[in-house]
Structure formats: structure tokens, C-alpha cells
Amino acid sequence: MIDSYWAWDLDALDPARSPVFDGSEFSMSGNGRKVNKSGVTLRMGSYEPIHLPPGTGGGCVRTGPFKHMTVNLGPVSLDGTSNPRGDGMGYNPRCLKRDLNAYISSRWTQSRDIDRLLSTSKDIWTFQMAMQGVPGSGELGVHGGGHYTWGGDPGGDLYTSPGDPVFYLHHAQIDRLWAVWQGQDVEGRREAISGTSTFLDVPPSANVTLEDHIDLGVVGRRRSISSLMSTSGGPFCYRYA
């Protein structure tokens, strides 16, 4: 199987003109309605917050296949928004919102950023930090840069962003770049792993190993990390064109 992905670098200078976001019949729908807002502040644990300028939308998506989509989960971590439950997990139907942002895409998702990620990351820890942005550095990396290129609600919410369909094209590109990086040194990188089992190591936890398992919940059975390290091994059989 050949998987699809969003090539951010092709759209980095003007995401609103991208066939991904132009609101046409086969797009992922367009920008949100223009609303007045002050931007986004990202808070990650005890690190200094990152302040991002507003994009050109922010309101409900009005064009394309998802213009009538209802989002039900969250928000959890968006300023100025609320949920019936304190943890953000209550049933909360609302419109899909987006806030396309060329400042963010041009700063973090150009071809130079992808080239740097693939050419300078000599081990998996360096690769992860370059892709994510080192916590406290003020950098988003291509991962965060992609997310906040479209932002909005739930796209700009760290915990509920999968509620926007474009999340999956974005993360397919993340997966693709990981596969490309692995392919530069298959023997040394195919099973390279680094980090603990908790986000930002809060609360502190042990380093993850290939023998640890991931519980996929309703989408699949529990699997070992070692079985999920290749696009052509374990349960997987796909590639990127």
C-alpha cells in the first residue's frame, strides 16, 4: 500500500493557496472565518511559554468537505475555551475551526527545515528533539510547525488535535520522515529508541524499551514497540511515494 501525506514544504510560504486547504471539493477544507484574536500561547510544563501570532482565520471552517463537521471532544488546553467537564473530556459539540498561519509554516516547515532534520540528526534523541523542538528553546520543530500551520480548534489543542481530519496527513508526513531517516542507516536506526513513557517525563518514569507495549484501545490490540518500528514489518505493509 502507498500511504498519503501532507508535504508541508510545498505549502510553507502560503498554506491558504495549497490544494490541501483551498476549500475545494477534494481538499481537506479551507481556513476558518476571520475573527479577532490575540494569537496562541503554548504552555508545556514548567518551561517558558511560547507565544505565537494569530493566523488569518480562527473561526468555523466554511468551505470544503468538512465545512459542516461537528467536533465533540475537548478543548483541553486552549486559552479562552471551555468544556462541561473540568478535564476537557466532556461531550461538547461545536464547529471545526482553523487558523491558517503562514508565519508559522514559513518559519518551521520549509524544505530547509526538513533537510536539516534529516542531515544533522545522527541519533534518535537528536532526531526527536529537532523534529519536536527542544523543550524550553522556543522552537516548534517541523512537528509543532505543522500543527500550528492550521491550528484552530481542535487542531491547536495538544490533547485533542486528532479531531481535525488533517491531523492524519500531517502525522503521515512525520511517519514518512522517520522512515526516511531510518533508511539512511537501517542497521543502526531501525530499532533506535529514546525517552521515557510520560510526556516531558512528568511524572518521572522509566526509559521506554522495545519490549514495552502500546495499548491501542479501540483501534487495535496491544502491541510491542519492537513490532511497530518499520513500515514494512510487524503488522505494517506500506510505503511512501
What does this entry look like structurally?
There is one protein chain. The chain is an alpha+beta fold and 241 residues long. Helix content is 24%, strand content 10%. The chain has six helices and ten strands, in the order E-E-E-E-E-E-E-H-H-H-H-H-H-E-E-E. It has a two-stranded parallel ribbon with strand order 1-10. Strands 2-5 form a two-stranded antiparallel sheet. A two-stranded antiparallel sheet has the order 3-4. Helix 1 (102-108) packs antiparallel against helix 4, helix 3 (124-132) packs parallel to helix 4 and helix 4 runs antiparallel to helix 5 (166-183). The protein is globular, with a radius of gyration of 18 Å.
Supply the key terms.
globular; 10 strands; 24% helix; 241 residues; alpha+beta; two-stranded parallel sheet
Q: Major sheet, described briefly?
A: 2 strands, parallel
Give the N-terminus to C-terminus distance in angstroms.
Answer: 10 Å
Order of helices and strands: EEEEEEEHHHHHHEEE
Q: Which descriptor suits the 3D outline?
A: globular
Widest beta sheet: strand line-up: 1-10
Fraction of residues in β-strands: 5-15%
Structural class: alpha+beta
* Cα Rg: 18 Å
Provide the helix percentage.
Answer: 10-25%
- Give the total of beta strands: 10
Q: Which residue ranges are poorly predicted, with pLDDT under 50 across at least 5 consecutive positions?
A: none
Tally the helices.
6
The overall average pLDDT, rounded, is 94
